[in-house]
Amino acid sequence: MVSYKGVDYDCQIIDTAGQDEYSPVNAQHAIGIHGYVLVYSIASRSTFDMIQIVYDKIVDFCGVTDIPCVIVGSKSDLHQNRQVQSNEGQKLGQKMGAAWIETSAKNNINVGMFTARICIA
What we know:
It is found in: Cell membrane. By secondary structure, this protein is of the alpha/beta class. It has helices at about 45-60, 85-95, 115-120, and strands at about 1-5, 5-10, 35-40, 70-75, 100.
């Protein structure tokens, strides 16, 4: 349950870790879903590249392009290992019509902010 501006939203998180371009998006990932949070590591170019692939599969399965979505660049504390620049995440978000945010669980930066972003997306 996520509360945003006094309204409670029932949220279910489905972890699709390990998705690749060959993994199908199925009904579990689309039917009855009102929004998506797609997460990549700023220290992993391959996880960033998967965001567009997974998003395209979701759009194909749902048959609509106006799906509320938040793109999250995780592990922002790993700046010395950064493979994905902030502006790349922002541009992808703009291209997909999605909100974008970077987070660090280690440093407690923007943790939980993506839940508010998906509620207003």
